[in-house]
Amino acid sequence: MKNFLKSVKWYEWVFMSVSYIAILTLGIVFKSSALIILNSITGITATFLIAKGLWIGNVIGIMQVVLYCTMSFFNNLYGEMITCGVFSFSTYCFSLYSWRKNRKEGSGILKISNGLKWQEWVCVILALSCVSVGMYFVLGVLNTNNLIISTICVGFSTLAYYLRIRRCEKNFIFSCLINVIKFVLWMSVILNGGGLNYIPTIINYVIYFCINAFGLFYWIKLKKLQNLRKQKAEQRILSVESKLEEQKIEE
């Protein structure tokens, strides 16, 4: 806990505080339900902790899945409900296991992977295309609102989730795209008579976008620092080995 508090910069505290106040204020002004407000607050918290590379963000993310699925169900957004209920929940569970295994001792901060090889990218894109096509027909049968947008969202979400499990910083690029798509999706809900009480959800995705953009640069920075430490450690080992060899030769 102490390490976490030290790792959060003053401007991050300010941003998060302003975000919480904005959501609560808008929720009160537009008479949003407790469900909408709680979904926004837990989502912002989980996204921020994940951007900081902390495994606890996945635990809070699981809580937010339940809230978001409930909210999507009431608006006939079955694509969102399936994506969140199946893919998001699975991602948070797998990430929770993977991240706890691959974290820096002492700080608890995630070790960033070196990314995917091109062969894996090809397999992922092919699998993603099949999932997207299949989900299009499934969502069509369920009479999902905004079918095209929901299908695109499922595709990008699946890719972002896979990259997050693999501890690849590129997951934030697709997360930002998802934030833009979901902003449009929930804006259409409001314009189609869903009510202004969903305004906090719209603002939520603006905040998500900012946090995910921050997460991208933060993970890139962590990756560089980790690779630098690894190189220095390898150099120390080589230095020690060379000294031992010199000593053997002298003897």
What does this protein structure show overall?
The protein has 251 residues and is an all-alpha fold. It has one domain (2-219). It has nine helices and no strands. α3 packs parallel to α9 and α4 packs antiparallel against α5 (78-101). The model has no long low-confidence stretch (mean pLDDT 82).
Summarize the structure.
This protein is mainly alpha-helical and 251 residues long. The chain has helices at 2-7, 10-29, 34-51, 56-74, 78-101, 118-141, 147-165, 171-194, 199-250.
What's the structural domain tally?
Answer: 1
- Termini Cα gap: 52 Å
Provide the gyration radius in Å. Answer: 21 Å
Provide the helix percentage: over 70%
Secondary structure tally: strands? 0
Net shape: globular
Poorly predicted runs: none
Strand content: under 5%
Question: What is the overall number of helices?
Answer: 9
Order of helices and strands: HHHHHHHHH
Task: Specify the biggest β-sheet.
Answer: none
Mean pLDDT: 82
Q: Structural class of the secondary structure composition?
A: mainly alpha
